[in-house]
């Protein structure tokens, strides 16, 4: 990942929701000062979200983060993820290895609900890492990484009242359809009902919990690629049951010591 030089562009936080207004064309918004949350009265809960963006040179907005809120929306993107019980971030980097299109997918998670942490902030720990070998052209490796994380690392029973934010850096235009289960997140697979896709840009979101976590995933995936290239391991031979890639390897991760990250609370 390369950071662009220059001044950080002014970010703007916005709250969105879809409302069918009546004949009087009145829109009602309420604000809860205790939680810093805005409720667009009558809005479709599936449409509400907090977004952070900035204006490009072209004049078009660049979305930095987009966090669905299921009703009431925190007014600042820095706090929006604190409404979820757990946060998981996954990012997948792609390079050529062994003469094949390969990817490394890395995920991090918060061990407890983010809102329960005080100073110095919210810790997050490495959850898993995978080497995916021989990916077919036209297949988005990011979505393979999502599927591996969901099916292999989040497959244990989750309490029905717990909401998990899965922070990703891809397919933003499809997030609403995926979150409404009108579209599969990977092939025909729909999200488990307790998981919500959240968008954070690994390149430009360095101020929110999701952004810091996705950047850590991106950096660790790059480091793993570099280590694999240095060690010159032989081409993998394990066969995959997924037709979109040839082989899959679960890589060892350390959950104590050097894999801990901290997001300072806003």
The CA-CA distance between the termini, in Å, is 25 Å
Secondary-structure element order, N to C: EEEEEEHEEEHEHEHEE
- Give helix % range: 10-25%
User: What's the alpha carbon Rg, rounded to whole Å?
Assistant: 19 Å
Mean pLDDT: 87
pLDDT under 50 segments (min length 5)? Answer: 1-6
Number of helices: 4
Q: Tally of extended strands?
A: 13
Morphology: globular
Give the biggest beta sheet.
10 strands, mixed
Query: What is the percentage of strand-forming residues?
Result: 25-35%
Structural class, by secondary structure, is alpha+beta
Oligomer: single chain
Q: Can you tag this structure with a few keywords?
A:
266 residues; 3-stranded antiparallel sheet; alpha+beta; 4 helices; globular; 10-stranded mixed sheet
Topology at a glance:
Elements: E1 12-16, E2 29-32, E3 37-40, E4 49-55, E5 61-68, E6 73-74, H1 77-80, E7 86-97, E8 100-109, E9 122-133, H2 141-153, E10 164-168, H3 175-179, E11 195-200, H4 209-231, E12 247-251, E13 261-263
Kindly describe this structure.
The strands form two sheets. Strands 1, 4, 5, 7, 8, 9, 10, 11, 12 and 13 form a ten-stranded mixed β-sheet that branches. By secondary structure, this protein is α+β, with helices and mostly antiparallel strands. Helices cover 17% and strands 31% of the residues.
